[in-house]
Design a protein that fits this description.
By secondary structure, the protein is an alpha/beta fold. The chain has 13 helices and 13 strands. β11 and β12 form a beta hairpin. α7 crosses α10. The relative contact order is 0.09. The N terminus is likely disordered.
């Protein structure tokens, strides 16, 4: 008889998660987990070997991790090995970190199954967070979302540098373990990403505006142009840089979008309705030949576009900030969320628990140019704060 763990590892009936975690498949190559005769220092498991899962694997391996990967499609596992995104195929329950990179609609179930399988810290890469946070009770789960991607599909297009300079959102709950959040934060920061801590609902509302609706808009415009091209054969030949830039994201895989739209439909519909209303106003300005009104609207958009932040560069001047914190759940999430609200980047996190009492020390490495207002805000909220410049 198979145990529950056997079912997860060998693919027998314990829910649909089973195919993601093979103990071994006969036609998939495996490699020794030893490096120069020694076990590697750090080990990670990746569940789901598509573009993002593969890119996480590449980034981890470039930083010396041993990465075990699994996917319900054996061809994805073979491709991941060939690409160098993973070190071996299988399920490594000794890994300290497990990254879930499965379709959005399956994340909650997969994370819950994985939480019962091993004592690893789990994070995901899905673009919708609130339903996952509500459905997962594990305190060692740190919900995440890298704001990065490509119009190319599959693990063959994975790239370890994909996350450098990108924003990576983390949406911990008040129950998330401090050490789990610190681990995921440090790993993501090591990829060169800007880590942003944000409330799950706020995250979903924001990404509806900046990611989900832009994709639907680009796809709709591309579909409209394609339909018109049937009767206007020169249309697509005349499509120049602006049209190509705006519709580039429509070339991405459509298979992930029904799940995303289903999980985040309330926020997406709200933004779509606002966009439709604004487009109707633009239509009316054009129809009325309202030059001043149209110019004003376009100028406002131009200024807003110019003010978009550029990619993050690690500053030369760093500050180490030491914060006295009560040893209780939710404090790290509170502190990192405050940093996000003040637009302060955290480049490293360390937690030092006191052996003498309930007080601990949270050690953060910050951008020196913005650290003072963050420390003032911490003091105003009752935290004791000390700092020093890093050479």
């Amino acid at each position: 008889m198979y145990s529950r763990t056997d079912a997860l590892q060998h693919g027998v009936s314990s829910g649909r998660v089973a195919p993601y975690l093979p103990a071994q498949r006969p036609n998939v190559a495996r490699r020794s987990s030893r490096v120069n005769g020694q076990e590697p220092l750090r080990r990670a498991q990746i569940v789901g070997l598509g573009l993002i899962g593969g890119s996480v694997g590449c980034a981890l391996r470039e930083r010396g991790w041993w990465v075990t990967g699994s996917d319900r499609d054996a061809s994805h596992e073979t491709a991941a090995l060939k690409r160098g995104a993973i070190s071996e195929v299988g399920c490594d329950t000794t890994a300290e970190l497990c990254v879930v990179a499965v379709p959005v609609g399956e994340i909650s179930r997969v994370v819950n199954e994985l939480s019962a399988l091993a004592d690893w810290v789990i994070t995901d890469v899905g673009s919708v967070k609130r339903p996952v946070v509500e459905a997962v009770s594990s305190t060692r789960f740190v919900p995440g979302h890298p704001m990065a991607g490509s119009e190319q599909d599959g693990v063959a297009a994975s790239n370890g540098s994909m996350f450098h300079g990108a924003v990576w959102a983390l949406t911990p709950s008040a129950q998330t373990e401090e050490q789990a959040l610190a681990l995921v934060h440090s790993v993501v920061a090591s990829f060169g990403a800007e880590v942003v801590t944000i409330d799950p609902l706020a995250h979903d509302q924001v990404v509806a505006m900046v990611s989900h609706v832009p994709h639907l808009t680009a796809a709709t415009l591309m579909s409209l142009a394609s339909e018109r091209a049937v009767s206007q054969t020169s249309l697509l030949r005349l499509a120049a840089g602006g049209f190509r830039d705006m519709t580039r994201i429509a070339a991405g895989s459509p298979s992930i979008w029904p799940d995303i739209c289903g999980e985040n439909r309330v926020a997406i519909v709200e933004v779509l309705e606002a966009l439709i209303e604004d487009l109707a106003e633009v239509r009316d300005l054009v129809a009325a030949n309202n030059r001043s009104g149209l110019t004003s609207r376009l100028e406002g958009a131009r200024q807003a576009r110019r003010n978009l932040p550029t990619t993050v560069q690690r500053p030369g001047d760093l500050i180490e900030c030491r914060i006295g914190v009560p040893d209780r759940p939710g404090v790290l999430a509170q502190v990192t969320a405050l940093a996000t609200s003040l637009d302060v980047n955290i480049y490293d996190i360390e937690i030092a628990h006191s052996a003498e009492g309930p007080q601990g020390v949270l050690i953060l490495v910050l951008d020196g140019g913005r650290a003072s207002r963050f420390m003032s805000a911490l003091s105003a909220e009752g935290f004791s704060v000390a700092s020093r410049e890093l050479g």
